[in-house]
Specification:
The complex is a heterodimer of chains A (238) and B (77). With 238 residues, chain A is α+β, with helices and mostly antiparallel strands. Chain A has 5 helices and 9 strands; from the N terminus they run ααβαββαββαββββ. The chains are: A alpha+beta (238), B mainly alpha (77).
Chain lengths: 238, 77
């Protein structure tokens, strides 16, 4: 299951930069140039800071009526739908690590007994499509408080059963619409959308909404992410 | 004038699809997220078209380029 390298914006930007450089310094490839790489990464980190500053923790993502929900929701991933992991509720455990007081693992039953809230929000993909869907589950803030996580740490990281991983900033983790989703369209979360649990964040782009989450950590060490480590912007907030 | 309007519209529609939560009022002005995407796309296309036409015209009549940069009309006709 090797990830297929998709064309992305940063690649396009680098391509554009080297194209411009070509006219000035013929024969010099800017994309492998260390200072150019550093410049692009630093621009992206600066972008993260601006977005963190723009993020208002009390500002809610727009919500929609049931009639606005897209009937056919799009599957997305770095592999075809048939290869999505099939997790067994008998053996599934959500492992906790980092700055968390109570690190006991969680079973599906334990998770599904947490308080639920539902939302109808727009999922915006970095690829240029969006869909409105309905999710319900436990606000991540309630869960983090319940397991006595240190809410002053900078990052919450997630690891998924399919090898995917990502991380978010603490203010977003504590946002009221950031939830551990257990249902989609009023049904138990289907396999292709991340059974038994996905993190639904309507204030972030789609790739910051991990599916099949099997481990959660609270940390000050930047955990990065699957696409983020290829150069996707880390904050990617809406 | 038209070109300036297009550039402003491109920037505003860009902001409204970059931050449809933080700048949701702006997104609403464009008629929602999907409409803002269309505005952004067609304004970007208009800028590309504007550039293509003007570069072609300059390429056809290259002698107009130096005065555009220096701001002086050429002394000899």
């Amino acid at each position: 299951m090797s990830p297929i390298r998709k064309p992305d914006r940063r690649g396009f930007l680098k391509g554009g930069l080297s194209l411009g450089a070509l006219s000035l310094l013929t024969g010099c490839d800017l994309t492998d140039n260390e200072p150019a790489q550093r410049l692009l990464w630093n621009m992206s980190f600066w972008n993260d800071r601006v977005q963190g500053w723009l993020f208002n923790p009390n500002r809610l993502a727009p919500t929609y009526p049931e009639s606005a929900v897209d009937r056919v929701f799009r599957y997305n991933g770095f592999y075809p739908e048939e290869q999505a992991p099939q997790l067994d509720p008998a053996t599934y455990r959500l492992e906790l690590s980092g700055a968390i007081g109570d690190k006991r693992p969680w079973t599906v039953d334990n998770l599904y007994q947490l308080p639920h809230t539902s939302q109808i929000t727009r999922h915006v993909c970095v690829e240029g499509w969006s869909r409105i869907g309905k999710w319900s589950g436990c606000p991540l803030r309630i869960f983090l408080e319940h397991v006595e996580a240190d809410l002053t740490k900078k990052y919450v990281g997630f690891i998924c059963a399919d090898g995917y991983y990502t991380s978010i900033d603490m203010p977003t983790a504590l946002h009221p619409q950031t939830i551990m989703a257990f249902t989609f369209a009023d049904q138990i979360l289907p396999r292709k959308f991340g059974y038994p649990m996905k993190i639904r964040i309507p204030t972030k782009l789609g790739f910051k909404n991990p599916k099949f989450v099997v481990a959660l950590s609270v940390t000050n060490d930047y955990p990065g992410g699957f696409w983020e480590d290829y150069g996707y912007n880390w904050f990617s907030g809406s | 004038m038209g070109a300036i309007t297009i550039v402003v519209l491109t920037a505003l529609s860009g902001l409204s699809i970059w931050k449809p939560v933080q700048f949701q009022e702006l997104t609403t002005v464009f008629g929602g997220y999907d409409a803002a995407r269309y505005v952004h796309f067609f304004c970007m296309a208009a800028i590309v078209l504007f550039l293509a036409v003007h570069l072609t015209l300059t390429a056809l009549v290259p002698k107009v380029l130096p005065p555009m940069i220096t701001g002086r009309a050429s002394s000899r006709r």
